[in-house]
Write a structure and sequence with these properties.
The chain has a single domain, classed as Fumarate reductase/succinate dehydrogenase, transmembrane subunit (3 helical TM bundles of succinate and fumarate reductases, Up-down Bundle). By secondary structure, it is mainly α. Helix 3 (52-60) crosses helix 5 and helix 4 packs antiparallel against helix 5 (93-132). Helix content is 84%, strand content 0%. It is elongated, with a radius of gyration of 21 Å. It has helices at 6-10, 19-47, 52-60, 62-90, 93-132. Its cofactor is heme. It is found in: Membrane. Pathway: Carbohydrate metabolism; tricarboxylic acid cycle. Keywords: Electron transport, Heme, Iron, Membrane, Metal-binding, Transmembrane, Transmembrane helix, Transport, Tricarboxylic acid cycle. Membrane-anchoring subunit of succinate dehydrogenase (SDH).
Length: 133
Amino acid sequence: MRYLTDRKRAVGKGASGSGTEHFWWMTMSSVALAFLVPVFVFVFGSAIGGTQAEVIAHFSRPFPAILTGLVTLVGMRHFAKGAQVMLEDYTAGTVRKALVITVYSLSYLVTAMVLYALGKMVFMSTAAQMLNQ
């Protein structure tokens, strides 16, 4: 026979069953974005106005590439989870499910496109350096 107290039965159960985990994820990603985005603005801003070759060379370096990838990954996950909360508050039924799936799909699509573009820039820069040698 198991004796569970009321507290033991309630541990880990929020309104949705994962409210605390969601709150901590949103808090931590907000703090991470608060540090990453200003640095990203300066890194991205320094590439504006350059030729295509200069921009490719700029984002082929490790720091701008890693920073751009981190901002994209953390930002899109933060966007998806925040939009999910908003949609859960203001929609219901099948429309809610469809909109949440759409938001998550959009965030994964944007993340994949940015990471693909970064990978292609790194590959193009590496290939151009190999051809020049």
